[in-house]
Every structure is written in structure tokens, then in C-alpha cells.
Amino acid sequence: MTVAEERIDRLHDLARAAAADGEDDRARYYVRLARRVAERNRLTLPRSFRRFTCDACDAYLRPGKNARVRLQNGHVVISCECGAHARYPYEDRADGAVSDTGSESSVTEH
Ligand SMILES: [Zn+2]
């Protein structure tokens, strides 16, 4: 793991922690920092990071809080409260990020 990857990992943790505390602006700040580090180092953000952040407003998404998770035609659809949607193939869930029950309450926070 490179230094940049470690930083992104760390920022992801900070964003998650801030979001869990209800500090959405702080979470967004960490999300943006992580994106910038990735860009500068030409790194691809980890799948779990992309899955839990909104491309439109950089919010750290918490299913059941500021995001909704639905299953649709074999896709997982995550809707941010800003109105943006992200779709992922259903089988693309190596992180175990989204449970297959479609129930928001079944998605755990770490
Ligand atoms: Zn959003």
C-alpha cells in the first residue's frame, strides 16, 4: 500500500466517523480531500469509497440516514438526499457493502 492509498484509507475512515456523528459537512470535507489525493496520485478510489460517497455532492452516504438503497432489475440503486442516484451491478458487492435483502435497516455501520 502506498502512502497515498493509506491517506485515502484514513480519510475514508474519518469521513465515515464524521458521518456517523451526524457531521455531514465534515464528512464531505474528508470525501473531497480523499478524491483530491486520488486524483493527484492517479489512483482509483476503492470500491467501498465510491459506493458510499455521492458523485454529485460528495456526501458520505449512510443508508437509512441520508441515502436510500434499493434493488432494481439486478442493480443496486443508491439515492442520495441531494437527488443523485448511483447504480451498481448487483453482483458487484465484494465489499459486502450492501446486503441483499433490500432493507435499509439491515445495512450496518462500522
Ligand atoms: Zn448527493
Total beta strand runs: 3
Uncertain runs are: 98-109
Number of discrete helical segments: 3
Strand content: 15-25%
Global Rg: 13 Å
Task: Provide mean pLDDT, rounded.
Answer: 86
Q: State the helicity in percent bands.
A: 25-40%
| Biggest β-sheet description | 3 strands, antiparallel
Q: Order of SSEs, N→C?
A: HHHEEE
Please, how many domains?
1
Distance between the termini: 22 Å
The small molecules bound here are:
zinc ion
User: SS-based structural class?
Assistant: alpha+beta
Shape: globular
Strand order of the largest sheet: 1-2-3
Cofactor: Zn(2+)
Keywords: Cytoplasm, Endonuclease, Hydrolase, Metal-binding, Nuclease, tRNA processing, Zinc
Organism: Natrialba chahannaoensis JCM 10990
GO molecular function, one term: ribonuclease P activity
Structure, briefly:
This protein is of the alpha+beta class. The chain contains 3 helices and 3 strands; from the N terminus they run H-H-H-E-E-E.
Q: If you had to describe this structure to a student in words, what would you say it looks like?
A:
- This protein is an alpha+beta fold.
- It has one domain (3-93).
- It is built from 3 helices and 3 strands, in the order αααβββ.
- The model is unreliable at 98-109 (pLDDT under 50).
- Zinc ion binds at residues 54, 56-57, 59, 80, 82, 84.
